[in-house]
Amino acid sequence: MSKELEAFLEYITVIKALSKKSIQAYSSDLGSLEKTLKKPLIQLNSKTLLKGLSNYNNKRTLNRKLSSVNSFFDFCYKSQFLEKKSKLKLAKIPKLLPKFLSYEKIQNSLLLIDKTTLIGLRDYALILFLYATGTRISECLALKKEDIEDNWLKIRHAKGEKERIVPIASIAKEAIDSYLDEIKSQKEFVWCNYKGDNLSRISAYKITQKYLGVSPHVLRHSYATALISGGADLRVVQELLGHASLLTTQIYTHIQKQDLKETVQVCHPMVKENF
Questions:
Q1: Which residue, of 3, 52, 70, 162, has the greatest Cβ tally within 10 A?
Q2: Catalytic residue flag (residue 220)
């Protein structure tokens, strides 16, 4: 590993305070590229770098690696390791609208859960929590009992270790309280498996798949969709979701446009006329 790359990894660890997963991703992307091309990245031109990445057919994977390279070059320029700015162009990817579930679909699925069992109480509370807060599954699984106070949720384990506070619906809070009262666990974390250990990401995925047929992340999309459809300001939704950039939140504006289109089609007299 080149000294410049080591300096970059130290920078994102100490100064930027990125999450362990983000640091590992940068280290893997950039380290493997240096190893493949057998030279420090700082000594390679754009043509050589693109050639080294040409075996990635998946454009999203390719863009992640290109983004890692661009972040590294930006650091090198600001640290005066490079005299000129260098930036690789990302591949164009068609915009995909986020998949989401309606409130009615979620309600109907929750009726299938047997809440007379401990596992059923947990599954019910978990699904309600994800839909009521829009948290990432990593944030959800890192939830501690002390993070919930009254009807507010403190998220300490967000991307980049940023902290935010999110209101939680009473029905979800009551479901969590019922679950915690039943398990009587002395552990600090909320979500447990049948052995009493911390619930894993795979187990959480199996729970939402079992009742809803989707991944936990779709409930995050469903939360955002419900807010936008209800008239919430885009910047408020950005804050609630913990997005660093408003551009990330703007994927949900398709909902507003669709609502506007349907309103015009139903209400405007000119749409009803046949010219």
A1: 52
A2: yes
